[in-house]
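TEACHING EXERCISE
Course module: macromolecular assemblies
Task: Read the component lines below, then compare them to the predicted structure of the full complex.
Student: A.B.
Group: 4
Components provided:
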Amino acid sequence: MPFKLAIDGMGGDRAPDIVVHGMHLAKSRVPQLEFLLFGDEKRLLPLVKNYKNIQHVEIVHTDEVVPQDMRPSIALRTLKKSSMRLAVEAVSKGQADGVVSAGNTGVYLMFSKLILKTLKGISRPTIVSEVPHEKGEAIVLDLGANIEVSPRILVEFAVMGEIFARHVLFKSSPKVGLLNIGSEAVKGPETLKKAFDALQKLPLNFHGFIEGDDITKGTVDVVVTDGFSGNVVLKAGEGIMRLVFDALKRTLQSSWRGKLAYLIGKPMFHTLAKQFDPRRYNGAFWLGLDGVAVKSHGGTDAYGFSYAIDVAVDILKAELNKKVSQEIEKESVQNLLESIE
Amino acid sequence: MPFKLAIDGMGGDRAPDIVVHGMHLAKSRVPQLEFLLFGDEKRLLPLVKNYKNIQHVEIVHTDEVVPQDMRPSIALRTLKKSSMRLAVEAVSKGQADGVVSAGNTGVYLMFSKLILKTLKGISRPTIVSEVPHEKGEAIVLDLGANIEVSPRILVEFAVMGEIFARHVLFKSSPKVGLLNIGSEAVKGPETLKKAFDALQKLPLNFHGFIEGDDITKGTVDVVVTDGFSGNVVLKAGEGIMRLVFDALKRTLQSSWRGKLAYLIGKPMFHTLAKQFDPRRYNGAFWLGLDGVAVKSHGGTDAYGFSYAIDVAVDILKAELNKKVSQEIEKESVQNLLESIE
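Instructor-supplied answer key:
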């Protein structure tokens, strides 16, 4: 501390308004935080003026914005000066300690991989995020960076995820589980069985296979899976949360009894809504890169964006990348990884 | 009608009690329904005596029960006379129109495949079940029978699922979606892209790729995916439902305000609980087999088991397998399937 974060002012459905507002909220919680804001100065300047604690923030002007639906390959060729790219470059140049963007996920991941590079000893970066469960929260990885995985890549996810849970979530001996379709060791694809065998040899608290409903039971602290399954589970989960809360709201509004019950129980309903507020879990991290890059949900609001900033701060405070490197570069870990395939 | 169902009296965590009670409940709704009950006569006889409408049900005695954690390969070698196996055989012998079991999923699927055989023109049977969404319900397939799939197999799932939605759920032109990690056609694994291209050539209402949160939005009526993703999404979804409802209960019980709100809004909370009651969605069907086999959740109660019986009845009423065969055997469909790979 103090940390300086590069912010993509133009990324996301409701940028730049919610981005600037989110910066204000985050800085209210962590006053030592500094920003380097990238984007259209004409739009950003009047916005930052609204908030006393960020009105003198450093703005780096650029006209280019990454469209939400642009393919990574096209963005790479055509957008050399986008707010997103410049923000990521600020980290590689040492001008900022980390970067936060709510923009196009595929493009952001590609820029981050190319510019920040992968940590030594890591095959592939992964997307990690926190999810709520009965007893607190767990992390799930990968959430979409790697559609196809090898046993070795899954083991790397497990090692990195364990360190994340230990140092960012402060779990003392985080339990690691491999997502499968049956908790018996005999089921599931070959890739998972090989990863299972390798994980038993590592000095971490490996729980074994878990099933989909173990995520919310809190059976483990670290849920390891491929990027396809992780992505559909995360998005389906968000959908189910919304389905149930919308139905609850509709049901209570459907009659005078319901409306009265809501009025009386209001503080309880608010506690519940807060507990599962998706904004609280906003902020996915590109784990395994030599730099701190956090992705905010594109459709979030200022509060959600401010929580994504918090994620970057927590990771910087934990010196996560340094700890991942130390663990991954250990000879015993490298030997095991190389023995897998 | 009348239909006769073979029932595995001994399958599931709470068998035979909830099985027999479930038969009673189902027969109360569909009085013409007949049963052939397989299992330990000494245990089943006193149970059926409790319910007037099934007290004279035909019981086929056997001592063998498939343990919940037995591997399919071992069950195949060692259990020739299990209640589950005999119940499936009753269908192949024409003694029953369909079979329902709450027993070991892997063993039940294997017995069903071996004994009932796959419908002509279908490569692999799939597990299908209904799930609730904003506007009603959709079906998801595959839920765990096929961990790895080819483009052709996904297209077969889509064709069979569309017929299921049309004839069992009475949707007039069911929309079919392929589960992917991005709705843009450029994303996702090669298998999905090839299935996407093939599905555009079929005369069905193909919506294209959908993402995890589209399931609960009700974007499509038929969600097509591989058995791994389908299984983890379904189980994770059940877990999230439980998480939210448990938290709602706990929050309301945590104070006098909450308790009062619950008392006043009781009918509304019951409506809500009923809407998402997992028992209502109990009953997965082995789609693609030459026979009607329905799997009940192993941990369900009598109500849940009775709904699994309803699923079998609905499928028999719809003459689903006949309709699937007619569609799949069409020359145009076979030509397309063979062109895929």
